Amino acid sequence: MDNEFEDRQEETVSDIIPSNQQRKKQSFLWKVLAMRERNGRTMERGSNYSLDTLSDPSIENRGSEPSMSSTEAVQNLRVFAATWNVGGQCPTMNLDLSDFLQVRNDPDMYVLGFQEIVPLNAGNVLVLEDNEPAAKWLALINQSLNGPSDLAPNGLKQTASFGGPLFFQKPSLKKIKKTFKKLNGKRLKSCNCVLEMERKAAKDFCFRCQESNFNSDDSSTEEEDDNFPIPVSLATTQMKYSLVTCKQMVGIFVSVWMKRELVQYVGHLRICCTSRGIMGCLGNKGCISVSMSFYQTSFCFICSHLASGEKEGDELRRNLDVIEILKNTQFPRICKTPNSRMPDRILDHDRIIWFGDLNYRISLSHDDAKRLVEKRDWPSLFNKDQLKMEREAGRVFKGWKEGKIYFAPTYKYAFNSDTYYVEGVIKVSKHKRRTPAWCDRILWHGRGIHQLSYVRKEFKFSDHRPVCSTFNVEVEVMFRGQKKKVSTYNFQNIDDDLVSTRSSYYS
After folding, report:
1. Which residue of 255, 260, 365, 395 has the fewest CB atoms within a 10 Å radius of its CB?
2. Does residue 382 have a pLDDT over 90?
3. Which keywords annotate this record (predicted)?
């Protein structure tokens, strides 16, 4: 068996590398095999090695079987997830998202979900969705993550409205996302697996650096806006984070960003929209799901806006939304590798994060809830949280996890105010009053996900407060034979101030 393996290695590399390098390769392979024999499987948590150091980018994703010369390590990926219902408000240029995005903590990946980026009126739901607000949010996110660029303020010129505030010049969402998705002047491919025939034809497959780009998975047929110039250099030299994908469904908008060094290892990018609105088929409610692979690990991100209402029994409608989303969400099969194991259902993924305005309310009378709000007794209020009770009863999100909540309810506030929208606090009619609730939530499913923080941010922009969470996510990285240093990128240590305080509640 040993001779067969040694002969195979000689046949593979003898024609493409000098003999002294060949011996180094084989020596490293023998060390890897010896390590696997002793330990079964190499598991490296918190290593100083980067993912680039441990892996060759030409290695195909989950669709193929590992060779005898491959081994596997586990690295931590820092993922920042956030959800914000912006109440149909269109952003202005002076809205700074840096604190919301916690840019000082330097995550490896951002997964951002918005709800109600447009008013949920008949025009947006039934006729044609307005994607101008989505373009503005995308530009603001890019400005916070990558710093000032030609897109702001030059690309998105300021124009004064009748009321005086500054607004963006109408941008093209398609053009903006196209530019932010470019990497080294090229666009990403949905599947970056190498076909079986190509692998057999390439003798140097294990040791060459393959270009990994991917096409837009959600391209539309709208025409390009030639009057909105965007410098191509933005996508290559000035961007610390690249846009992996973004998608809008009426008021729901999701975007995924990743550090430029890591984007090349993303593959199998797919998006599925599930409508759960009017008559169970319109997009004013529902979700956008993103499926992708990062090295050998599959990810799924679900941004949802579930059924509203605080009447008794409305929580069952929200439960049904979750059940139908899990049942009906199916990602297209795009992998070019035969017998690919890339999942097409949400729960089949390795790492899953679900976030959004889940709309679960408080099962208390208005007067009882009002009394607890006035006392700021958040623990007693949370004991009557519908999502908590439905999960404990096993009626929804069975097997999912949510971090401890140590922050005040995120809904419903008066606009531009710290005051809850309840009768007696703000002058509202009995019909319009709302009981404060934790509508905005982040949950996860799967092994290898460790939550570091779960907080809300104090933005008065809408009637909801945004909710953010930071995770350490384990990623399986397979490498073969050669320990090739592609870059000097390393995952950084988690800052101490990331961990949320557990000593007190705040509003």
Report:
1. 365
2. yes
3. Hydrolase
SS3 at position 255: strand
Partner residues linked to 242 by β-bridges: 258
- Alpha-carbon distance 212 to 189, whole Å? 7
pLDDT digits (tens, 9 = 90+) for 294-317: 999 999 999 999 999 999 999 999
Looking at the structure, tell me whether residues 119 and 15 fall in a common domain: no
pLDDT reading at 423 higher than 60: no
Determine the distance from the C-alpha atom of residue 436 to the mean position of all C-alpha atoms in its chain, rounded to a whole number. 27
Per-position DSSP letters for 463-484, written without gaps between them: SS--EEEEEEEEEEEEEES---
Q: Does pTM top 0.90 for this prediction?
A: no
**206 plus 323 within the same structural domain:** yes
Is the domain of 78 the same as that of 24? no
Return the ∠ at Cα 64 (arms to 111 and 482), rounded to 5°. 85
Residue ranges in 303-382 assigned as alpha helix (H): 314-328, 366-375, 378-382
Number of domains in the chain: 2
Helix (H, G, I), strand (E, B) or coil at 36: helix
Q: What is the largest CA-CA distance in the chain?
A: 84
The confidence score (pLDDT) of residue 222 equals 31
Whether 65 and 21 map to the same domain: the answer is: no
User: Are residues 119 and 26 located together in one domain of the fold?
Assistant: no
Does any domain span residue 433? no
- Matching residue, tokens 């993303």: 266
442 secondary structure, DSSP code: E
233 pairs with which residues across the strands?
none
Which structural domain, as residue segments, surrounds residue 31?
1-40
More confident residue, 32 or 419: 419
The pLDDT assigned to 27 comes to: 52
Contact, 290 vs 300, CB < 8 A?
yes
The C-alpha atoms of residue 385 and residue 362 are separated, in whole angstroms, by 5
Is 296 in the same domain as 323?
Answer: yes
**pLDDT value for 278:** 87
The phi and psi torsions of 409 (rounded to 5 degrees) equal -55, 145
Q: Which residue has the tokens 């240093």?
A: 485
For residue 392, tell me if it sits in a domain: no
Report, in angstroms and rounded to the nearest whole number, the Rg of the chain calculated over CA atoms: 25
According to DSSP H, which parts of 202-333 are helical?
260-263, 314-328
Q: pLDDT by residue (tens digit) across 131-178?
A: 999 999 999 999 999 987 654 433 444 433 333 343 445 667 777 777
Length of the chain: 507
CA distance 443 to 117: 22
Supply the DSSP symbol for 362.
Answer: B
- Looking up tokens 């599959």 gives 298
Question: In this structure, how many other beta carbons lie within 10 angstroms of the beta carbon of residue 142?
Answer: 26
Q: What is the DSSP letter of 396?
A: S
Q: Are residues 9 and 109 in the same domain?
A: no
| Residue whose C-alpha is closest to residue 304's, from 86, 90, 114, 437 | 114
